[in-house]
Design brief:
TIM Barrel; 6-stranded parallel beta sheet; 12% strand; 11 strands; 3-stranded parallel beta sheet; alpha/beta
């Protein structure tokens, strides 16, 4: 079963600022130098729309997926702001395959009320947050009640904990290690760290090894082939390869492109004596490992 655990619903200019799109384009060009065949760029006429994930685009990109998690990030600090009702409406119209997660900014005074409304009224079934996009410190204890509420609601959380191209985003809040206080305070909270916390993949690996309910997804890794290989080998060496799960991060790439990217992970060591990532590991990341943490 192919379960894409990480897609976005948003488009320019309704949900992304001019500044955000400009930074995104610069990052896109750098990635495509290394992986042009496994990167999504839909609009050839106006590059400001290269990161659009409109309903029709999302449906087309994920047509081969059995189930798909979708969210719209609420992060006005960095120029992204998606209505959670938009996500709920899209999911209600495509409930055969799509599962909606909400996004809440933990810096909002009413963040807990928003979370409860999104889950209990809108019917969204998970939470997306991002310290680097929303400008909050994961180690600040004032945010723990918010995550305790997510834990009590029984919903999983996807956390973008890792770098990003956005200029205002604070890297000081981006290292995956900073999630440990939340993991300790909320031991039953299922958390998925996006993108293996790149470029702190090793920190992500040792963190998910320690905490039973922490996992990570492999979206956005394959654009940088050397880091991709090293991240997978680190997970294998620490015995947590089973905690790596599939996600596309569409519109950065389609699920098919991300799958193709995973099967290219060993290309950087062809003709050498370096160990290969086993085919079984790659297969399980794509099709099996999500079963430990998510429900369809």
């Amino acid at each position: 079963m192919l379960f894409d655990t990480h897609t976005n619903l948003m488009w320019y200019p309704d949900h992304m600022s001019d500044e955000f799109v400009a930074f995104a384009l610069a990052a896109k060009r750098a990635k495509m130098r290394l992986s042009p065949d496994v990167y999504y760029a839909d609009d050839a006429e106006d590059e400001r729309h290269a990161f659009d994930a409109r309903p029709e685009q999302l449906l087309a990109a994920t047509r081969d997926c059995d189930r798909v998690i979708v969210f719209g990030i609420k992060a006005a600090y960095c120029g992204m702001d998606v209505s959670q009702e938009l996500v709920a409406d899209f999911v209600s119209e495509n409930a055969d395959r799509f599962i909606g997660w909400c996004s809440v900014d933990p810096t909002d005074d009413d963040c807990i009320d928003q979370l409860v409304y999104n889950v209990e009224t809108l019917g969204l079934r998970g939470l997306k947050v991002a310290p680097i996009y929303q400008n909050w410190d994961p180690q600040d204890p004032k945010h723990l009640p918010f995550f305790k509420k997510a834990e009590s609601l029984g919903i999983p959380v996807n956390i973008h904990q890792g770098t990003s191209f956005v200029r205002p985003g604070p890297l000081k809040y981006a290292n995956p290690i900073q999630l440990e206080d939340i993991a300790i305070a909320c031991p039953e909270l299922r958390m998925i760290i996006s993108h293996m916390g790149h470029p702190w993949e090793d920190e992500c690996v040792v963190l998910i090894r320690k905490h039973p309910n922490l996992y990570t997804n492999v979206s956005a890794l394959h654009y940088r082939p050397r880091r991709h290989y090293q991240a997978f080998m680190s997970a294998i060496e620490y015995g947590v390869e089973h905690k790596l799960i599939f996600g596309s991060d569409f519109p950065s790439a389609t699920p098919a492109q991300v799958i193709a990217g995973q099967w290219k992970v060993n290309k950087v060591v062809e003709g050498t004596n370096f160990p290969r990532v086993p085919d079984e590991v790659i297969h399980n990341i794509i099709y099996e490992n999500w079963k430990q943490v998510l429900e369809v």
